[in-house]
Amino acid sequence: MKTLRITGVPEHFNLPWKNVIARQPFASKGIEVTWTDESRGSGQMNKAIRNGETEVALVLTESFFQDFENGSPAKMVGFHVKSPLIWGIHIHGKSPVNQLSEIQKPSFLISRMGSGSQLMSYVLAKRENWEKGSLSFSIIGNLPGALEAMVPEKPEMFLWEKYTTKPWVDSHELKRIGEVSSPWPCFVMVASDKALEAFGDVILQLRDMVYKESSHLQQSKSTVSEIATNYELNPEDVEQWLTQTQWATKAEVSKQELLKAMQNMVDLGILKKELSLRDFLFSRGVRILD
């Protein structure tokens, strides 16, 4: 029995993958598909791809592009979520700061260098006219690490998906003082070069099963209750999240959309230069539009 390992954050975005994996669609071919929750985010998943600890990872777009530019041995096999990610800007719940405009020295708690929680600080800094060189970072690992590290006296900001953190905002352990959206589609499906060589079309078949499941979930009346139950979220919050979220459902990408995203990332200092689509896309399995 061969094992095809999939890794993603333990968040509601990944329900389509978990549903498909639960069916073990390749058992008759002698392939077991496994799922690993990675709470430390995209930076850690890029590392797992490099170290051969996973075959496929569901990574933030900006994090994969930066890691690919730095030598990641992987390819994008499609988008996972096409809508932007809405990041909450969080500080300690008892901080005297109540508005983003009150922040004097922008400092951030991040899961690791190269993670979305770090890279999105550059998007926020550009919007707020903060000098990129003035930003400071402390690595805390994940959401529990941020909760442990925060103190009321120092308003260190923690950027994380706003609905994932909503229970802690509701309990006043965290205070949300703003939001910032990624100016590009937020999640990509990434497979290591070794995995594509070893599993080939099986990875593409699995991706297409996920696209079919994503399409079903976007239309199903039971999706709200399924997400609320599995991820311990308020049903009303899930309803709102679904209106703002578009899972990818086809193996196609827009050339113009990717070029625009990369130009944004170059302007923000996330990338040194625009990447060639031929280099980072697994072109045999992805249709390029435009």
TrEMBL record:
Keyword Signal belongs to the record: yes
This protein's UniProt keywords: Signal
Localization of this protein: Periplasm
The keyword Ligase is assigned to this record: no
Ca3427-like PBP domain sequence ranges: 104-180
Any single Pfam family the record assigns to this protein: PBP2_Ca3427_like
GO CC terms, sorted: periplasmic space
Signal sequence, renumbered to the chain: none
Main location: periplasm
Record-stated family: Belongs to the bacterial solute-binding protein SsuA/TauA family.
Protein name: Ca3427-like PBP 2 domain-containing protein
